[in-house]
Amino acid sequence: MIAKRIIPCLDVRDGRVVKGVNFVGIQDVGDPVECAIEYDKQGADEIVFLDITATHEGRGTMVDVVRRTAANVFVPLTVGGGIRTVDDFTALLRAGADKVSVNSAAVFNPILISEAARKFGNQCVVVAIDGKCTGIVEDPKDSRYGKKRFNVYTAGGRHDTGLDVVKWARKAWQLGAGEILLTSMDTDGTKAGFDHDMLDAVCEVVDIPVIASGGGGSLASFAEVFEATECDAALAASIFHYGEYTVDDVKAKLREQHIPVR
Which residues have a catalytic role annotated? Predict the structure, then answer.
C-alpha cells in the first residue's frame, strides 16, 4: 500500500481561517499563516488553502497570504478559490504554491484543466469537486444503477450544476488533472466520518490520486476511510483547528492500524 497523506485544510475568508458545518454557520478560527506554521510543525504532508468566497464574490485568491505562508513552511501548498485563468495559476505558483486547485471555473471552462496541465504539468493541477447526494442513479444502462447519485456543486456549494460527480471526475482526469480533491457536502464539518460511497464511486473511474474531504472527526474515521476506499489522502479542518487532535495523533493511529503514512 502506498503511504497515505494527512492534509490540514485552511478555508480562508477575508484573510482569516474559518470553518462551518455543511458549508454554512461559518466561524473564525485564526490567522492562516500561523495555522499553516503549526501544521507544518505537527508533520502535515501538505497544506491546502481554499479561499471559500473568492468565486462567489468574483475576485481572485489571496496571493499575499500564499507568499507569506510559503516563506514560513516547508511542506507542499495547494491553493484554490477564484481561479479562472492560466494566469491565475502562474501568479499562485510564483507566490510559492506547489499545486493549484480549480473548482467552479473548471466546470464552466473544462479546457482550463488541459491548458494548465500543458503549461505547468499535471502534478500542479488539482480539480476540487464539491459533491452532494441528490438521489439514486435511475438509468438502467449505468453500471451504478440503483446506487447513490452525487451532483457537482459550485460557488462554494451554492449552485447545483446538475452534473454527475463521477462522470465529471473522470472527465477532469482525462483532461489532465493530476489529482482530485473530493469534498462531500453531506459530511462536511459534521465529524461523522468520510463519505465512503462517493469516494468509492470516484476512485473506481480515475487513475490519479483522490483526496478524501469532509467528515473527518475522529482518529478512527481516518483509519476507516483508508481501509474502506482507495483514496490516497485524507483532508480535514475542524479536528485540527479546534485542537482536538494533531496531525501526529492521526498518523500514530494509522500506524497502529498498520496503515502506512509518510
Answer: 11, 130
